């Protein structure tokens, strides 16, 4: 009887360990992949999570599978977040090129740059392409009396800015 209770407790703690790791991974990925499109939160959370998982494994000595799972989840989460950020940056560079080309075509046809990116719809785009595929992934376009800039947030406060006069990219952080 005592053996059965121990097995039941171990099984329950295993389920709890798996669920906790999955919830944490979902939260980190929701923020980094779904909202920000960068790996900043994962870069902060995953090393701490990894160390806590390692300590939990040393202290509680779970089964082989749970121990590996606990340690693998923060590593896998960080890998997914970093891979997603790389993908998002490539999408942003490609879409920025499309927007810049459309603005230049607009200027050739109208003698001026568009006041807003919405002027490019529907002639050049069915809708303005996003900078990144996440909630905070949009382009900012500024036209101050012909002085035009296109900007997008690569991560946090780091911004990529295209100057239409000089035809060059710069960075702002």
In terms of topology, how is this protein built?
Blueprint: H1 2-36, H2 40-60, H3 64-110, E1 140-144, E2 147-155, E3 158-163, E4 168-172
Antiparallel strand pairs: 1-2, 2-3, 3-4
Helix pairs in contact: 1-2, 1-3, 2-3
Can you give a write-up of this model?
- This protein has 173 residues and is of the alpha+beta class.
- It has helices at residues 2-36, 40-60, 64-110; strands at 140-144, 147-155, 158-163, 168-172.
- A hairpin with a 2-residue loop joins β1 (140-144) and β2 (147-155).
- It starts with a helix and ends with a strand.
Structural domains: how many:
2
Mean pLDDT: 84
End-to-end distance = 64 Å
The share of residues in helices is 55-70%
Q: Which segments are poorly predicted (pLDDT under 50) over 5 or more consecutive residues?
A: 1-10
- Summed up, the helix count is 3
* Multimeric organization: single chain
Topology, number of strands: 4
Structural class, judged by helices and strands?
alpha+beta
Q: Largest beta sheet, briefly?
A: 4 strands, antiparallel
Report strand %.
5-15%
Write the element-wise H/E pattern from the N-terminal end onward. Answer: HHHEEEE
Q: Which term fits the overall shape?
A: elongated
- How large is the radius of gyration? 24 Å
Entry keywords:
173 residues; alpha+beta; 2 domains; four-stranded antiparallel sheet; 3 helices; 14% strand; disordered N terminus
Describe the structure concisely.
The chain is of the alpha+beta class and 173 residues long. The protein is built from 3 helices and 4 strands. The longest helix has 47 residues.
């Amino acid at each position: 009887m005592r053996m059965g209770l121990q097995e039941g407790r171990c099984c329950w703690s295993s389920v709890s360990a798996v669920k906790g790791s999955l919830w944490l991974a979902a939260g980190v990925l929701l923020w980094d992949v779904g909202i920000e499109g960068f790996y900043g939160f994962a870069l902060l959370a995953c090393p701490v999570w990894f160390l806590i998982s390692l300590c939990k494994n040393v202290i509680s000595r779970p089964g082989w599978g749970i121990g590996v799972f606990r340690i693998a989840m923060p590593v896998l989460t960080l890998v997914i977040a970093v891979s997603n950020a790389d993908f998002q940056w490539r999408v942003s560079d490609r879409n920025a090129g499309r927007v810049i080309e459309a603005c230049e075509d607009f200027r050739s046809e109208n003698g001026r740059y568009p006041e807003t990116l919405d002027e490019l719809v529907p002639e050049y785009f069915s809708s303005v392409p996003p900078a990144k595929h996440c909630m905070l992934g949009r382009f900012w376009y500024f036209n101050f009396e012909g002085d035009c800039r296109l900007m997008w947030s690569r991560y946090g406060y780091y911004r990529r800015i295209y100057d239409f006069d000089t035809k060059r990219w710069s960075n702002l952080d």
